[in-house]
Amino acid sequence: MSLFHIVEARPSTDWAYDSLHALEVAVTTELLGEDQSVGADWSRANYSSEVTSIKGLLLALPGAAPSDAVAGRFGLPEAPASPVEVLGVVEFAMPTRDNLHLMDDVYIQVARKARRTGIGAALWREARRIAAQHGRSATIAWSHHLAGAVSAPERVEPSTGVGHLPVDPGSLFAQSLGLTLAQVERESRVVLPVDPELLATLRAEAAARALPAYEVVSWVGPTPEEHLERVAEMNRTLSVDAPTGDLDWQEESWDGERVRVFDEMSHRTGHSVNTLAIHAATGEVAGFTLIHVHHAYPHRPEQWNTAVAAAHRGHRLGLLIKAVNLQELAADTPQARYVTTWNAGENDHMLGINTRIGFRLHSVHGAWKA
Ligand SMILES: CC(C)(COP(=O)(O)OP(=O)(O)OC[C@H]1O[C@@H](n2cnc3c(N)ncnc32)[C@H](O)[C@@H]1OP(=O)(O)O)[C@@H](O)C(=O)NCCC(=O)NCCS
Questions:
Q1: Which of 67, 203, 234, 331 has a CA 20 to 30 Å removed from the CA of 102?
Q2: Residues 16 and 122 in one domain
Q3: For the segment 193-248, what is each residue's pLDDT rounded down to a tens digit?
Q4: Counting atoms of ligand 1 from 1, which one is nearest the CA of 174?
């Protein structure tokens, strides 16, 4: 008698997103000391949009697969229509506009009571089988660890030599699968409100270098029509200019339409606060930053993209757009308690700006490759 079987949840399997959320609450609380889940509605919105990648959510369920189960698009049974206990999940995305060699964002979570029974490894094998079926030669998987645990005497170091992870179940599991640690990302936080005087001082210092050669515009919500191409260009820049360690990551293909698709997805369950820098003489885009507020969790907005175009570096634009955007956020979401951001450990320049604003290390994230 099998202890478990693996099924695919489709967007129509509504209950699966509530189960995923419950597991995320438990696992983020265990790993990071608090609920850092994205929320069931965000997952529903995410999995219902496959315009730029094929997204997978596989569930490990108790017992053997029913003999009459219908096979879905990955050759696995589809999840039943009514809720059942979920023992573990694997999520993944296969980009369809670029990075066609890649299966990315692989993340495995197993319910505590069901661990060390082979579920995590079985979910991994299914993800790899599906990757091969779709011609994906490389896989990137993630692990998450509280920064305090990193002072443990034993550590795992990435091939880049920058940062390290503790030896804990997540890293031991990844190593047992034969994965290698390609990069360590840092999650940092700034407690809100940032002192308004500090923000005003940083803004004035940066503006003295950047203005009037550059103009700064901010908005809340989806990207206005006239900036779609500019934001697309900044996303393209970000996809290759941020350090990618030992990961085989290629430039993303962005256009205005893709920005619309991204906005449509992220604004179904939240909103964003955006600041753009434009070169005044040419109208060229010079920098962009975005803070996303999940409506379910307005107390912890997330700093997503920040990029300054190579041709426009050295004018304090990074500091300027971040200071302006945090001022906008203070006006827009006064109930926010902290902002979270993620950076490659190698990204000295961005980390330097963040430190001046008051961001401090909170957790570390392993990017593992196979
Ligand atoms: C990491 C995690 C997914 C493992 O799931 P699991 O179902 O317990 O894993 P498996 O039973 O398939 O274990 C496979 C191998 O990984 C290693 N491993 C897993 N957990 C381990 C632990 N706590 N200590 C030491 N080795 C461990 C072992 O080599 C194990 O093989 P073995 O049991 O035959 O010795 C689970 O602990 C979890 O959900 N953790 C929180 C989320 C997380 O960290 N995800 C990161 C994935 S990279």
A1: 234
A2: yes
A3: 999 999 999 999 999 999 999 999 999 999 999 999 999 999 999 888 777 777 88
A4: 48
